[in-house]
Design a protein that fits this description.
alpha/beta, Metallo-beta-lactamase, Chain A, seven-stranded mixed β-sheet, 6 helices, 14 strands
Length: 225
């Protein structure tokens, strides 16, 4: 069994034979359902881009746990310099395997910076653990290549998609992404953290219709696969 827990905003905890965090923005996150110190036994941390609400507490948690941080090559170097002693796996768009976990880093349409300087490119991840395939889109707009992700790496069991608009897809665009990706389950994320990304997940669910099962998780809730 693989569990996918929503930690608020775009942060998720995946628990199977390995324990994985994606975009662990916890300190400063008004939705956060956990603290960095809750993850002293995590194995891998995946970062989609360098914005503070995604890079978040990755370095701190890696220091606490000894977890490896997987990120775009440039972002991995940034983390290594900022958090001495943290082991990073720098990669670029494409497949790899880290400690038995299959990972594909895929493009995302978004910027990436530390708030001042551009760092690397934004990405999403398709993670396969214990036979379960999970797509975390990161921050992105919908684009036709999502259809290629499904063709190459599907079937996708669950897609974690932003729906908040302003910086990412809104409900309408995310529903189109579902059509392209063809996942079994969809979990909306990156909405209602702050006013600019206010969105109604029920509207998203209605737009998706029968294309996939939409699971609306509150921070702290999980989906079992």
């Amino acid at each position: 069994m693989v569990k996918v827990k929503f930690l608020g905003h775009a942060a998720f905890y995946i628990e199977g034979s390995k324990k994985i965090l994606i975009d662990p923005f916890l300190n400063g996150n008004p939705q956060a359902a956990a603290k960095p110190e809750d993850f002293r036994d995590v194995d891998l941390i995946l970062v989609t881009h360098a914005h503070g609400d995604h890079l978040g507490d990755a370095g701190e948690i890696a220091k606490l746990s000894g977890a490896k941080v997987v990120a775009m090559y440039d972002i991995a170097n940034y983390i290594s310099e900022k958090y001495r002693g943290v082991e990073t796996v720098g990669m670029n768009y494409g497949p790899t395997e880290v400690d038995g976990v299959k990972i594909v880093q895929v493009p995302a349409w978004h910027s990436s910076s530390d708030g001042k300087y551009s760092i690397g490119n934004a990405c999403g991840y398709i993670v396969e653990i214990d036979g379960v395939k999970i797509y975390h889109a990161g921050d992105t707009f919908v684009f036709r290549d999502m259809e290629l992700f499904a063709e190459l790496y599907g079937p996708i069991d669950v897609a974690l998609l932003p729906i908040g608009g302003h910086f990412t897809m809104g409900p309408k665009e995310a529903a189109k992404a579902v059509e392209l990706l063809k996942p079994k389950y969809v979990v909306p994320m990156h909405y209602n953290t702050w006013p600019p990304i206010a969105a109604d997940p029920e509207e998203f669910k209605k737009l998706v219709g029968e294309k996939a099962k939409v699971v609306i998780l509150k921070p702290g809730e999980e989906l079992e696969l």
